[in-house]
Amino acid sequence: MHARSALFDVYGDHLRARGSQAPVAAVVRLLDPVGIAAPAVRTAISRMVGEGWLEPVALPAGRGYRTTDRANRRLDEAADRIYRRTEPVWDGSWHLAFVAPPPGRSARTRLRADLGFVGYAELADNVWVSPFHRSELDEVLERAGALVRTARATDIDPPPTGAWDLESLERAYVEWLATADDLIAQQLDAHRDEDEAAFAARFHLVHEWRKFLFADPGLPSSLLPDDWPGRAAGELFASEATRLKPGADRFVARCLDV
């Protein structure tokens, strides 16, 4: 687990509901049970400040960091997808984005990753498709310095679901269903303190589940098979995350109150 990714997890899953800020010492205490050492935490914080995700703040308990407005938007959008709070109503049409990519290989690579994260797939060279007009699209393109023209298509034959690697996604969900219980059990057994164990188990659960944000575009149910394993995987995740939350919350409160 990378420290930067772990910081996104702890701010999104725990600190977002607690003012989106915390002293550095508290963040170090929070990430210790999941194997992230203090020097790695501080290095990742510095990097995220430079990237515009965190900003320094003076807190009564000492120097701390809070998420920026940009980070809060990304965390809230990710949380909606992680916990599948709502499923948009699909009108049967497809949103097409004709993207003029920015110069520079690294910028183009980052843009492709960001477009995939918000649910678009490349249907043809520089033509991206999604069943919905994602609100995050404009910010992604503006940040990359890319130009875009958009259109709506009501009839694409065959349907562009093949733009996503649904076979690999299906296998990933099947594997998730087979391994999630062991992932939780390992963390619960590894910590003597029950609340710390619940925090570590939920943390690893959310961290592994969050990887689906980069692979699952959130296609409407009508476009997926009746036995799509993502539904059962989502139910298992929601059930276990809810079960572990009270203990995890108590551990977070202890870390913040020291």
From TrEMBL:
Residues 164-253 form the Transcriptional repressor PaaX-like C-terminal domain. GO terms for biological process: DNA-templated transcription. This is Phenylacetic acid degradation operon negative regulatory protein. Gene3D superfamilies: 1.20.58.1460, 3.30.70.2650, Winged helix-like DNA-binding domain superfamily/Winged helix DNA-binding domain. It comes from the Bacteria. Residues 3-70 form the Transcriptional repressor PaaX-like N-terminal domain. Pfam families: PaaX, PaaX_C, PaaX_M. It comes from Nocardioides ginsengisegetis. Transmembrane segments: none annotated. Coiled coil: none annotated. Residues 89-147 form the Transcriptional repressor PaaX-like central Cas2-like domain.
